Amino acid sequence: MALNGDDKDFFDWEPPTEAEMKVIQARKERQDKISKLMGGYLLKGYRMLGDCCDVCGTILLQDKQQKLYCVSCQELDSDVDKDNPALNAQAALSQVRERQLAAQAAAPPALPPAPAPELNEGPSTSQASVLVPQPRPEHCEGAAAGGRALLPLPAVPSPTTPAPTPALVPPRAPVSPQSPVIPPLLQEAEEAVLIKLRWATSQLQSSASLETSIQLCSLIASCANSLRSLKELSQ
Amino acid sequence: MPPVERLHLDHVVQTVCALESVVLRSFGPEGGQVLFTRDTGQAMLSRSGARILTALRLEHPLARMVVECVLKHSTVTGDGSKTFILLLASLLRMIHKMACKEPNVSHTYTSRQTAEASTARHLADKILAFALEELDDLIGMGVIPYGCCLSWEDFTAKKHLSGPSNNDCVQKLLTSFFHSRLGRSHCDFISKLTYELLTHWKFKRDQPSLSLEFVNDNLDALHTPVSGFPISCSRLIEGQVIHRDFATPCPQTEQKAVKAAVFSGYLQPKLLNAGQVLQLGCGEQWMEENSKNNRSIVQFSAWTERSLKCVFANLQSLGVSVILSAVKQSAAVLSLAAQAEMCVVECVSEDELSLFAQLSGAKPVSDCWMVEPEHVATLTFCRPILLGAHRYVHVAFNDSEERVTVKPCSLVICGLGEGQTEQYTCAFRDAIRMLLSTWEPMGMTATTASKRTLQSTKSTSSHVDQIPNVPPFQQSGLQPGYVIPAGGTFEFLLHHALLQNGTSCSASDDIVTSGLAVSQLLANALLIVPRQIYSHSPRHFLQAQARFQTIIQNHSHPFSLVYKQEHSSIFGESAFPLEEDKLTKHRFTEADVSAKLFMSDSGLESVSCKYQLLLAVLQCLSSILHVDTVLHTHTALHTQSRRLANTSWEGTDDETED
Lengths: 235, 658
Prior knowledge:
The structure holds two protein chains of two kinds.
Chain A: H1 7-12, H2 18-44, E1 47-52, E2 59-62, E3 68-69, H3 71-74, H4 89-106, H5 115-125, H6 144-148, H7 182-206, H8 210-234
Antiparallel strand pairs in A: 1-2, 2-3
Chain B: E1 4-6, H1 9-24, E2 34-37, E3 43-46, H2 49-55, E4 57-58, H3 61-77, H4 81-101, H5 112-142, E5 148-149, H6 166-182, H7 187-200, H8 208-217, H9 219-222, E6 223-227, E7 235-238, E8 240-242, E9 258-263, H10 284-289, H11 297-318, E10 322-325, H12 331-339, E11 343-345, H13 350-360, E12 376-387, E13 390-397, E14 409-415, H14 418-438, H15 446-462, H16 473-478, E15 482-485, H17 489-508, H18 513-526, H19 528-533, H20 538-554, H21 558-567, H22 577-585, H23 590-599, E16 604-606, H24 607-625, E17 627-633, E18 642-647, H25 651-657
Helix pairs in contact in B: 1-4, 3-14, 3-24, 4-5, 4-18, 4-24, 5-15, 5-17, 5-18, 5-24, 6-7, 6-14, 8-14, 11-12, 17-18, 17-20
């Protein structure tokens, strides 16, 4: 039996390292949180089903409207939520930055130095500046692959702004006075915002959780605002 | 969903932990209450674990299994449902942790989860085997010396001149039970009422627990729930209350004693039932004389009514004026009874009739043609009583020689609403069950007795000269009725005893470090109960733990230190060293303890109930860990699929299939 195990197995087993201990601890805390949440929902009248969630393996709950609810997927921050743009401002920021960087790399190489000084003035007037050539490394685990390729561009000191702004304001184009450079940039920004809008709409249609829906609605609202200001800019 | 589902240890732990978090907030004397609401708008507050768990909507088969175990346990002991879940969750977590630490890869198991599951199963079985063999010894050695035995003989005797005695202990036991179930405000009142009821119902000549069993069996007939009044209106009523009203007007007969007869069948036989064919015939002589009138149903029913008059004449000659019937009598019977000035009570339940028969000494009439004097009961009175919105029949019995020690009485339980009244009734019922299981002896066999004498020599050598007068273990183990202070005392003491037992086992036995592991696992899992009781303040938990360590080391009585604890602000300082010395040298008899008990405020709980709870938890744990497959079946009647849990001893099958 495993308790009086064979000697050769003992040699294979090592005590967990500190990193593993942290992981174990984090997992235990997560399980405690899940149990607590589940208990709260059971007391509220949710039904505990005999099935498990396909994604995370937690026991599924069903509310009175017969909708399925997974406590860990829909409420707790899972490992993948950090990269989900609808739920995380930083991920959204980094995704837009990725796009901008991709567009700039495709644009003629003479252009990047020109807009850079304008961009330096621009962000001082507008609150949330997005066209930072270098993405901040601590923001994008998911966007890291796209960002690091373009690191050699000079760092701009403006990027303190994304941190204090609340969620989902970012996709706003900066005010930039130069007209020949503007249209492709504006178009690019508009396109990005439209894509995001479209994505958010499709997510909203299929969303089952209240919080996700609220966040998606605010994302759509801010996309609409950004589109409006982009249109004002281009006029 | 797949038709066959493997059940993993993680799922088991998650399910039970979810149930634990449901009951956690209501646990303990400081626990909160759960508000139940219905779609009709009815609301109810309750703290009862059984009620909370039954109200949950659970479709998970394991969760349902656990809740069923809890309910079964609660039907027997009346208490401990939340503690059950807490202990189960704590043991599962410990087993999970231990199973995960074991070596991953063993050549017999192909998947890690199967290895974990089988380790867990093995551990659970070991713990159960250990508990079945050695737990009562451990309790006898480690817990009972710190307890106090409530002997039944003193239960209802008149107050001793020596001051507070067992009566207060029993009442304290009841009070702490009601406190945890119903809240602080009315627990004293209700426990006093319960105690009075039990005092009235004590059969002196019989075995003491028989009267408790009698009350438990006849509880439905012995209480009347009345809603619409505050709880303080509850009272005891002399005699028996029959929960039906008079079917005929009751004549006023206050002066003389009333005679009653109990009928279990119909006075006028019902001959025409649906689906039956009645064939009428009559004698030849009659046929010849009244040829046109024969074989008529009208003639026949007239004949039956004439025979009824004979029955009533017979009853009148015996002096019967009250008829108690188990069934609904026909209109002819009622009108004849009214004419004869007898009152009839119909549709009395079986329980009440049997109680009536027992108390009055009269046998129920089976054949209405043969009513003998032995079927006639003499009552002091039989009159209507108005309780709440209902009118019932109130009877009182003549004192005869057999019953001179028993004063039959009935309890009226009042509550502000129906839900509340029902709660009080359930609490009352559970209190009786709890008392019954307090006096149940903990199982002991000849082998354990011999083991005990061995261990007693070992342990007395370690506590040298501290207790010269410890009672022999055989005696203390067999006597039921032990109580200890509430608030985690049992768990602390058993924790210590288990750890000691573990170390002594590993020192002396070759067999197994797993014996030590089992004791340690159980000991650590037990601590969750006091941890949760003191969860509002972890500092109190540590203080309590340290206090019990001191008690155990000094081997003084826990009650005295509890008393001191309340009066001294600095923990650990014994302000009464003289008293402590005295206590260590004295025997722990009731006389010594009762004075301290009376002054200590901590409440009491029963050792036997805790022991049964622990055994039940370990058995439930073992059975849920033996489940490894869930088969989903579809039944024709239900739209959702119904699932069956399949308990299987599939250890070897798992390995080959995987």
